[in-house]
User: What shape does this take?
Amino acid sequence: MIGCSEGCATGECLPKSNQARSGQISNDTDTPLIDRAKTTATNGPPIDRRAIPAAARESTWKMADGHTVRRIDWPGERDAAGPQAARGSILFFAGRGDNYEKYLESLEEWHRAGWRVTGADWRGQAGSGRLGKDDVTGHIEDYSVWIDDLAQIWQDWVKAVPGPHILAGHSMGGHLVMRALVEKRVTPDAVFLSAPMLGFQTPPLPLRVLHGAARLMNWLGDPTRQAWKWSEKPGEMPAARVDLLTHDHDRYEDEEFWRSARPELVMGPASWRWVERGYASLRILEAEGAMESVDVPVLIVSTRSDKLVSHAANVRAAQRLPKGELLEFGEEAHHEILREVDDVRGRAMAAIADFLDRVAPAKEIPAQP
Assistant: This one.
């Protein structure tokens, strides 16, 4: 059984160095805001992407084995009328090496649209510890560890929040959501995935060959060693990294801000074990009948210009899923579509809202006598 520390005010219950920085990163309205870190909102004041929103509360989940995983929760704008007044609830997971701070803008927008919103770390990254031999390498022994965590979090979460219950993920988060769907570990009413990692950007070789090469690299050296080079200066992000992720340099710099404010968020390349287990997990998804067995509406948002994950694999997944839908971008979008320039991001957010309105409409609230 997993537990949660409830009732934590913003800036409290933060792991490691966050505790000492709670004043620096709080939502104090007297703190001057950096204009380029604000997003003009249509349904409220501008969203400061570099501050924890006033309505959000950070706390933790305690997993079955005692490992602590961070979470952040918004109650939902309609919750004042009671728990069933909310539009529904969204549980969102970010990608490899990511943190929920990068997605505060989107999470806050869904909250303002009436949803109860929860974001969470994956074990072993962001503010939820490390599983390798150093503080920056993204390591995992097997993706099933994350699937087990997701299943436990899901069971706990759905009992506490109103439906419809929506599960969402970006990149590796999307991959793990898909694995959980295929393995029937979660039962959402609908799912949306941003640039899901349903395939790697690799040479056009059979998956079994690529998996075999990754196995060989694990055999040749320490599986916890980094699988690719980070930068010349340890801890510093490569200069060209922005061109893989987004056209919006201000949103890209938000990540650098949070890494500075909360150093425990810093993560570099993945381990060779992560790579090899990634290929093994992809082979599970590619198995005949795997995605075809998913009887849940799934929207995949993907871009042809993605240089990190396979857009072709995402298109194929949308076709294989019985209730799959695809929103496709071109050269105007890089990998982090929800952190793209306003026009691109706005189209993605509008498509997600339309999808949820169609496949997971709000539950009717009985009229008060």
The longest strand covers residues 68-74. The chain is about 30% helix and 15% strand. The CA atoms of residues 338 and 349 lie 8 Å apart.
